[in-house]
Amino acid sequence: xxxxxxxxxxxxxxxxxxxxxxxxxxxxxxxxxxxxxxxxxxxxxxxxxxxxxxxxxxxxxxxxxxxxxxxxxxxxxxxxxxxxxxxxxxxxxxxxxxxxxxxxxxxxxxxxxxxxxxxxxxxxxxxxxxxxxxxxxxxxxxxxxxxxxxxxxxxxxxxxxxxxxxxxxxxxxxxxxxxxxxxxxxxxxxxxxxxxxxxxxxxxxxxxxxxxxxxxxxxxxxxxxxxxxxxxxxxxxxxxxxxxxxxxxxxxxxxxxxxxxxxxxxxxxxxxxxxxxxxxxxxxxxxxxxxxxxxxxxxxxxxxxxxxxxxxxxxxxxxxxxxxxxxxxxxxxxxxxxxxxxxxxxxxxxxxxxxxxxxxxxxxxxxxxxxxxxxxxxxxxxxxxxxxxxxxxxxxxxxxxxxxxxxxxxxxxxxxxxxxxxxxxxxxxxxxxxxxxxxxxxxxxxxxxxxxxxxxxxxxxxxxxxxxxxxxxxxxxxxxxxxxxxx
Amino acid sequence: xxxxxxxxxxxxxxxxxxxxxxxxxxxxxxxxxxxxxxxxxxxxxxxxxxxxxxxxxxxxxxxxxxxxxxxxxxxxxxxxxxxxxxxxxxxxxxxxxxxxxxxxxxxxxxxxxxxxxxxxxxxxxxxxxxxxxxxxxxxxxxxxxxxxxxxxxxxxxxxxxxxxxxxxxxxxxxxxxxxxxxxxxxxxxxxxxxxxxxxxxxxxxxxxxxxxxxxxxxxxxxxxxxxxxxxxxxxxxxxxxxxxxxxxxxxxxxxxxxxxxxxxxxxxxxxxxxxxxxxxxxxxxxxxxxxxxxxxxxxxxxxxxxxxxxxxxxxxxxxxxxxxxxxxxxxxxxxxxxxxxxxxxxxxxxxxxxxxxxxxxxxxxxxxxxxxxxxxxxxxxxxxxxxxxxxxxxxxxxxxxxxxxxxxxxxxxxxxxxxxxxxxxxxxxxxxxxxxxxxxxxxxxxxxxxxxxxxxxxxxxxx
Lengths: 487, 463
What we know:
The complex is a heterodimer of chains A (487) and B (463).
Chain A: E1 6-9, E2 11-13, E3 19-25, E4 32-33, E5 38-43, E6 48-52, E7 57-62, E8 69-71, E9 75-80, H1 86-98, E10 104-106, E11 120-121, H2 145-154, H3 172-181, E12 187-188, H4 196-199, H5 209-218, H6 236-245, H7 270-285, E13 288-296, H8 298-310, H9 318-332, E14 338-340, E15 345-347, E16 353-355, E17 357-359, E18 362-364, E19 367-368, H10 376-391, H11 397-400, E20 405-409, E21 428-442, E22 445-459, H12 465-480
Parallel strand pairs in A: 2-10, 16-20, 20-21
Antiparallel strand pairs in A: 1-9, 3-5, 3-8, 4-7, 5-6, 7-9, 11-12, 13-22, 14-15, 16-19, 17-18, 21-22
Helix pairs in contact in A: 2-3, 5-6, 9-10, 9-12
Chain B: E1 2-9, H1 15-25, E2 29-33, H2 39-44, H3 46-63, H4 79-103, E3 107-110, E4 112-117, E5 120-125, E6 128-139, E7 143-145, E8 158-159, H5 161-164, E9 173-177, H6 181-193, E10 196-200, H7 212-224, E11 228-230, E12 234-241, E13 244-251, E14 254-260, E15 262-265, E16 269-271, E17 285-286, E18 289-290, E19 303-305, H8 316-330, E20 346-348, E21 353-358, H9 361-366, E22 371-377, H10 382-386, E23 393-399, E24 405-412, H11 419-427, H12 432-437, H13 447-456
Parallel strand pairs in B: 1-2, 1-6, 2-3, 6-19, 8-15, 9-10, 9-15, 10-11
Antiparallel strand pairs in B: 4-5, 5-6, 7-16, 12-13, 13-14, 17-18, 20-21, 21-24, 22-23, 23-24
């Protein structure tokens, strides 16, 4: 029966080859193989090539693991028929170990066969390998052909890789280890590189709704599919077939985090972490000082009422006026319209105003971009939408990241006056109190006016006291005479 | 002043669905209801009438039990028990809505709301008024029965739907004014329960919103059941004459004076917009309904309207659908699609039932489309004949060029449960070919849907 057992041996490719390193197996124990099927990639000092099956049968044993170096003639695995007993296989292996005379000599492969198609391929845009990409021409670096080809795919300069192979040669494993260490990702052979069709726009392809959805789910481009449905539509069976062709596995089941224990202490949310980190840094690094001013609102309230009465589809709030007035004042006093990163001051030509919105378990600052170029109505409508979506956690990052100035309004809680902490890297923040009737002295006589207290916190590293004072006085002017914002 | 992110006025199938969707999306939500959660649909419309119509169906089944070999003696009927059943179903469902509000952390405010300003709502209740502020206010106040200039619902001789579904005794003779969906349902109900029913419609056919072929089959079926159907006929006056109503009717054959024990007025509905305080806010209205954009936005900042108060079609499922898209649009969800009125199915629960979706044949022709029409008569449907309900039709209308299903019109047993098959086909933009290739189970009434589609292709097997 032993004549049915066939060895997989380390081949001898050329006269100089005395040993080879196991690179990767294409088969596993139990697989059916046919003559000429790829079995294992072996890397020598010169080339990487694939050992193919000399016989049909079942892979019954694999004796050499990737990374191991074996002498020519060593037994790497065993192919046998399915009905060969384990005892016979073991006996064959044992007898083989003592019989070192068997030597496999095969013709040397041509260099074009070196390419290893299957074991590992690259993501379309490998990420985080930038640190490995720089450097001088690496064509003289000693590297295996597979490593060199993969290096090109990853965009890696071989000068940056420490070779551990013979004579410091860079092997495929060295390359992959370096890519992984740099934070890049390796993609297994199952995820083939997207071909052209996959990148094409398939939205015009006629397909049944089920087919379109399934294709999206499986990452299949409808351009890749046959259209066997009625009237040339791609149907579900076509997508399934395309998926099977690609050997595309269904998407991985998400890893569910283990239940955390019901401990009393609470890990802070990522929002809370951000608030904590940013505001602590702001308070510690930016020397805050405040200037304070009162503004009379009666004119503004009259104007607001006129606007709202005349436009049913608009509801301009006092806060909308403050946003507009700040934008106008920032354009008038551009030294306040800045960001500062500790070294550089950035001046902005437009006023992108962040407005603090209280949300569940925190706050967020959506931005009215270019508020200086917008009318009250569009500021008002935009603000309503932003604050609605802020409360639902539906803001996009670009809608709350950035901004050149910040407004925090606690007037609706009846707060008379407060100080706010600068939202870095911005240079200043305005704290707005409630508008309330107060006794004021005019021309030596007591009168009643609606008054609002405003406090500007500024970073003294970039905004000096006189600048802040000028800004506040301009702002007061706009709020007390809103028509002047029209100029 | 209390503050919410979103407030809903009205707890019907538009309002309570809007509140739940809003709460799901994270809005701090409140719902104001002046009477019953569930609205007219659940308390005084769809649901309790279906409970009554089940009684009518049983009455009909008992009548024809003889055909199936049964002899029933000493049959008696207590209408109070039927009304009691109807009311208990309504109560149960209303409590179900209350539970849903609680489960979704929605504050339910009992009282009558009025919009006092943009984003401001006052709710008055016995002994006070509470003020609320909300960035988004959705009006879902519904609609109520319309009166005629010369005939008004008095709750005594002249009933509206509410009185008609809580009778204390069965009238001997009944005049139903209005042959729309509500009118024919009451005509069918009282006829089955044993009342002598006359149905009067001003248009030239009953259920004028449906395809004319459906109307004529319904009219024939009604007349066979003993309902007197008078079309192109107006009711000039209704006067009390002792315990009866003396009614002056003017039709193609001149004027007649007829006496009835009872009159039901069902001549359409009007929007509930009067007590909302909208007069001073410059809100756009049209024939008592609020004018809104395709996502329910009115011309007043922060104010929205959905369901009956926002106009036709006046159907609960249309209100619920509008509720979802209105709230999702406010929340800024991507891909919110406006409601397509041609895909809102309509169901009338008379006997035989009527269900339809999309364009009638006349509407499709008016749009200048070239169409393909298929018909399948239930007289050739085995299941329909087996249950002794062989009267009916399935009519399908396809665009001859694109194969799009433009409309489907059904009359027959349980067609209200079948129409969604055509609705799904429309939504998936199936053509007559997909429908033709679909395998329909045998024996079912719905096989006639298939047959109708085949007929549109000239491939009908059974006719």
